[in-house]
């Protein structure tokens, strides 16, 4: 699956109701605890340049439901160039792109300067610390699910703080 693509799960859709998600997470938790790994994953900060640590879904993960009444359904997007418009991005993705503090660090070749925040991850060869999924249920309002990994790191917690502040 390509990043940014739209796929529709016809047999499995959740509304933005808290109890639906709580039940879903109970099922996911059970599925994960039924698996008995042979080793423990290494611990470390995946945002640290040069290391190969990976984030995991653990107690430092926070998941938010962000209602977005103004979000545009992908079927209504006529041109690929519309992809960066706020109504296509949705609130959470717009926030992520709004500041270099929330994105991984890399050199801007055109400007000749370093941009971004190397402590959060999310650059070439370092996975992003945040997964944002836009949802368009047949019944109910559109919303985004925002999964933030490693919120024990202050740079990542800052994104969660602003996300909550701007959506209350």
What keywords describe this structure?
168 residues, alpha+beta, 3-stranded antiparallel sheet, 5 strands, 14% strand, globular
Question: Percent of residues in beta strands?
Answer: 5-15%
Determine the mean pLDDT: 78
Radius of gyration in whole Å, from Cα? 17 Å
Low-confidence runs = none
Category by helix and strand content: alpha+beta
Number of separate domains: 1
Helix count, per DSSP? 3
SSE order in H/E notation? HEHEEEEH
Largest sheet: 3 strands, antiparallel
N- to C-terminal distance? 33 Å
Question: Helix share of residues?
Answer: 25-40%
The overall strand count is: 5
Spatial order of strands in the largest sheet: 1-5-4
What is the general shape? globular
Commentary on this structure:
The protein has helices spanning 18-33, 86-98, 154-166; strands at 62-67, 106-108, 113-115, 130-135, 143-148. It is of the alpha+beta class. It has one domain (18-166). Strands 1-5-4 form a three-stranded antiparallel beta sheet, with helices on one face. It has a two-stranded antiparallel ribbon with strand order 2-3. A hairpin with a 4-residue loop joins strand 2 (106-108) and strand 3.
SSE order and pairing:
Elements: H1 18-33, E1 62-67, H2 86-98, E2 106-108, E3 113-115, E4 130-135, E5 143-148, H3 154-166
Antiparallel strand pairs: 1-5, 2-3, 4-5
Describe the structure concisely.
The chain is α+β, with helices and mostly antiparallel strands and 168 residues long. It has helices spanning 18-33, 86-98, 154-166; strands spanning 62-67, 106-108, 113-115, 130-135, 143-148. It is globular.
């Amino acid at each position: 699956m390509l990043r940014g693509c739209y796929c529709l799960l016809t047999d499995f859709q959740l509304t933005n109701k808290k109890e639906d998600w709580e039940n879903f997470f109970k099922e996911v938790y059970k599925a994960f605890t039924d698996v008995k790994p042979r080793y423990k994953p290494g611990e470390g900060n995946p945002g640290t340049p040069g290391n190969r640590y990976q984030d995991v879904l653990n107690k430092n993960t926070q998941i938010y439901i962000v209602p977005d009444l103004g979000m545009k359904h992908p079927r209504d997007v006529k041109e690929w160039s519309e992809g960066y418009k706020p109504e296509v991005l949705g609130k959470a993705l717009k926030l992520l792109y709004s500041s270099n503090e929330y994105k991984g660090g890399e050199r801007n070749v055109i400007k000749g300067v370093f941009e971004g925040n190397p402590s959060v991850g999310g650059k070439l060869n370092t996975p992003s610390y945040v997964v944002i999924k836009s949802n368009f249920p047949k019944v109910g309002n559109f919303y985004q699910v925002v999964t933030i990994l490693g919120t024990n790191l202050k740079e990542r917690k800052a994104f969660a703080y602003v996300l909550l502040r701007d959506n209350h």
